[in-house]
UniProtKB/TrEMBL annotation:
It comes from Thamnocephalis sphaerospora. The keyword RNA-binding applies. Belongs to the RNase PH family. One of its GO terms (molecular function) is mRNA 3'-UTR AU-rich region binding. SUPFAM superfamilies: Ribonuclease PH domain 2-like, Ribosomal protein S5 domain 2-like. Gene3D superfamilies: GHMP Kinase, N-terminal domain. It is found in: Cytoplasm; Nucleus, Nucleolus. CDD domains: RNase_PH_RRP45. This is Exosome complex component RRP45. One of its GO terms (cellular component) is nucleolus.
Amino acid sequence: MPKEFEPSISEREFVQAALLEGKRVDGRTPYDVRAIEIHLGPEYGAAEVTLGKTRVAARASATVVRPFPDRPNEGQFMLNLELSPMASATFETGRASEEEVLVTRVLEKAIRQSRAVDTESLCILAGEKVWSVRVDVHVLDHHGNLIDCATMAVVAALLHFRRPDVTVIGEDVTIHTLEERNPVPLALHHIPICISFAFFEDGQPANHSCPCDRLVMDPSRLEERLQDGDMTVTVNTHRELCALSKAGGSPLPPDQVMRCVQLAATKGAEITNLIRKAVQDTTSRTRPGGGGGIGLDR
């Protein structure tokens, strides 16, 4: 299996020196995210999101299944992530890497465990038939911060997805085609957005007045390789903290964590509006089978 590149000592020193001046090697300030582009279509539930050069595609689908015995009135929601060698030479087909496991866990916490999808609305006939919604996530290009890009792709796919309308008479269930009836959007309790941060410890003067100078939002692949710690904050437009994930690294003081939550709430609201606008614009000018997109340069 190919190994991930190891940044040189000069690269580390250069990144740290730039951060002390409030700059980053790609020209961004510490709290800037890379340019975001959202493309929807050609079918309902198909979304592709680029975050800088990181690119993730997501596709939502639904099938009719039997509900779980302990939840007869609830539908099902599943996420499936695939990291292929096409995205990075360090990924192997058929073998889950540590990064794949980490990204999957964060997505599960952010979207499924936060109950973003209203599974009760997916019930067709209690105890007999429910919708099972599945989102397949494919990483196409990996240039850092897979979690945030994948979350945006999943959310865009869910908002853009439409399931067939259903008529229930007694125990008879009729699933209508898109030509017979307009499809039905999914019911979402809230829209979770992940915002990831990277932290740098070395080179920070002890008496520096602003410890946040070593904190960056939306880390690039180089910054991920050099970081001393990271944290992903999941928020929604209600400014609710849905999840917080920190897989090791340097410890963080409480005030640093709270600052990250505040920054994530502000940036998450911007990204949510961007996704909603992309979905609204695409839906208003296309019929089933059409597509469109929108972008934001930050």
